[in-house]
Amino acid sequence: MLMDKAIEILIVEDNPSDAELTIRTLEKNNLSNNILWLKDGEQALDFLKGRGEYEGRNVKSKPKVIFLDLKLPKIDGIEVVREIRSSTNTKQIPVVMMTSSQEQKDRLKGYENGVNSYVVKPLDFQEFTKAINDVGYYWLVLNKPPV
Amino acid sequence: MLTIGILLVSLMVAFLPVHYTRFGSVNEFTNFVLFSLILLLAFCGLYYLLVGIDSSDEIRDEQYHSFISRAPMAVAMLDKNMNYIAVSDRWCTQYDLAEKQDLIGRNHYDVFPEIQQKPEWKEMHKKSLEGKYFVNDEDVFIRKDGSKHYIRRAVGPWYLPNNEVGGLLIYTEDISDIVRAREQAASHKKRLEQEVRERTQKLEQANKDLEAFSYSVSHDLRTPLRAITGFSQILLEEHVDELSAEGRRLLNIVIDNTEKMGTLIDDILAFSRVSRTELVKTEVDLKQLFEDAAQTVMEGYSEIKDRVEFEIQELPKAKGDLSFLKQVAVNLVSNAIKYSSKEETIQVEVGFKQDDQRPTYYVRDNGVGFDMKYSDKLFGVFERLHSSADFEGTGVGLSLVERIIERHDGKIWANGKKGEGATFFFKL
After folding, report:
1. Residue B249: Cβ within 10 Å count
2. B221: closest chain A residue by CA
3. How far apart are CA A18 and CA A70, in angstroms?
4. What angle do CA B281, B282, B287 make, to 5 degrees?
5. How far apart are the C-alpha atoms of A88 and A106, rounded to whole Å?
6. C-alpha dihedral over A56, A59, A65, A70, to 10 degrees?
7. Interface touch B233/A125, C-beta < 8 Å
8. Do A80 and A48 meet the contact criterion of CB atoms below 8 Å apart?
């Protein structure tokens, strides 16, 4: 299981097509092999806090970046980032909001609640792959994580 | 006795301007004046009868009884003990009383037992018997059968030849119809206001629904589109060997159309955003705005870049919402380039004319132009004057521009001729 491997990228995305395209793009460019894809906000928080189906997980092992979708089942992206920021163990993890929403109010809400970056997923596939590569390269290679 | 007339005249003169401001309508005011005049005449008449004619008591009594009895309003003459001496016909009909002969001699409070509920009236009668006058332009009288009457009234003393108070004169007018009409008007107004409130609420709800809808369009419709293009692209890139040339062509058509749909979704969203976003107005440098727009637009037309000649004049600054005006500039410039793209040299001129207080800005091109008889279709949503085989487009761009300009209380119009370019004018 992925549980004992250190997760580099946590993708929280309810749309399987989007998730597959993202993972495919990242893997194709050797950006990460340790990707975990979770389908809703509850799962994401369970993973980060080591509870529920992730009971007993070493929560000291943190992803280098979280790609978080805005609209998620159960607990939405904004609520997830708010939770991440309010807990000492998780508050430093970089969170990139990846969304299809161009709405300014979503963007504002994202930043107000502490996202490190807000990326509107381009519709065009070429642009989409480029965006995923750029974001992946920046957060996994260029950016130095807190620890 | 002379004082009655004088007092009444001064009373009415004093009351008139006060009443004028209190009446709901001119009609009501006219009624009151009429009422007051009749009152004045009545008092004068009585004064004349009681004082002016030197004759025996019987003749005098008969004369004023007959005067009161014929008065064209509800009048009652009472003695000091509030017993009826004389009443007018109208008094009996208005209050639904017995024949007036039967009324004479009876006590006012027996005839109207409901006055027991009105101690202030009894007080008024008492004071009037001491020489005071009362004029009320509106009072409520609830009869013993429960019916509600609105009356206008004057109460005053009448005097014996020896200058002692002989009793009371009461004049009333039923103004229930006027008051009810007024109340009805007020309740109509209230209902209308309520209706407006309800409609506004519904409208606000509709707006919210629309917002939720646009949101869902922006988010939920784009995602499957990306999947279609994405996986088609992967097919083209990674499984190209398994596809025939025709298969690849078809797949490219799928991708093309998906992209078109994406543009369409973006355009519709931008269009709906104009209506539901609050404008933030600042002073906008239009020259800068058009220069930036030209640059942005050219990024998408790299293949014809060398054929384009821009001429952007100095432009007066304008007050407006920067991001929306940016959209205006980009759409107008991109339109100008698009419809001139088949010319050898593409000339786009941005300028202004100062014909009245507000400058008229314009964007002119030397492209295919348009037939003026279709000019009303230029700004319609999804209306197009050219096929998308000739010039790509969704038919939203110019309607978006128009809507933005309208939200700025401005105006946009166009001039053109087929094959001779087009000019778009706008005022902000």
Report:
1. 10
2. A100
3. 13
4. 120
5. 25
6. 60
7. yes
8. no
CA distance A145 to chain B (A): 30
Nearest to A103 among B215, B226, B255 (CB): B215
Beta pairing, strands A65-69 & B84-87 = unpaired
Report how far residue B242's alpha carbon sits from residue B245's, in angstroms, rounded to the nearest whole number.
10
Whole-number Å distance between alpha carbons of A36 and A12: 8
Q: Which positions in chain B touch A15 (Cβ < 8 Å)?
A: 223, 227
Is the CB of B215 less than 8 angstroms away from the CB of A101?
yes
Is residue A77 within 8 A of residue A12, CB to CB? The reply is yes
**3-state secondary structure at position B85:** strand
Query: Is A121's CB within 8 Å of B226's CB?
Result: yes
Give the bridge partners for B298, in sequence order: none
Q: pLDDT tens-digit profile of A6-47?
A: 888 999 998 888 899 999 999 888 887 789 999 999 999 999
Tokens linked to B408? 């700025």
ipTM of this complex prediction, to 2 decimal places: 0.72
Tokens of B91: 């008094």
B-chain CB neighbours of A109 within 8 Å are none
Give the Å distances, CA to CA, from A121 to A69, A125, B311, B397.
10, 9, 36, 23
The C-alpha atoms of residue B90 and residue B112 are separated, in whole angstroms, by 16
Amino acid (one-letter) located at B384: R
CA–CA gap between residue B140 and residue B82 (Å, rounded): 21
Least confident of B177-181, B274-278, B334-338: B274-278
CB contact under 8 A, A24 and B227: no
Cβ atoms B314, B345 nearer than 8 A: no
Q: Nearest CB to B218: which of A15, A102, A128?
A: A102
Estimate the crossing angle of helix B245-276 against helix B222-238, to 10 degrees.
160
Contact assignment for B262 to A123 by CB distance below 8 Å: yes
- Residue B30: how many CA atoms within 13 Å on its side-chain side? 3
Q: What is the CA radius of gyration of chain B?
A: 43
Tokens standing for B24?
Answer: 């709901």
pLDDT at B39: 66
Report how many Cβ contacts below 8 Å link chain A to chain B: 55
Interface test with A, best of B225, B226, B239 (most A CBs within 10 A): B226
For residue B120 the two structure tokens come to: 């202030």
| Rounded Cα gap, residues B93 and B71, in angstroms | 13
CA distance B252 to B258: 10
CB contact under 8 A, B218 and A71: no
**pLDDT tens, B393-412?**
777 888 889 999 999 999 99
**Residues belonging to chain B with any Cβ–Cβ distance to chain A shorter than 8 Å:** 215, 218-220, 222-227, 229-234, 255, 259, 262, 266, 269
Give me B345's structure tokens.
Answer: 């040299």
What is the distance in angstroms between the Cα of B295 and the nearest Cα belonging to chain A? 20
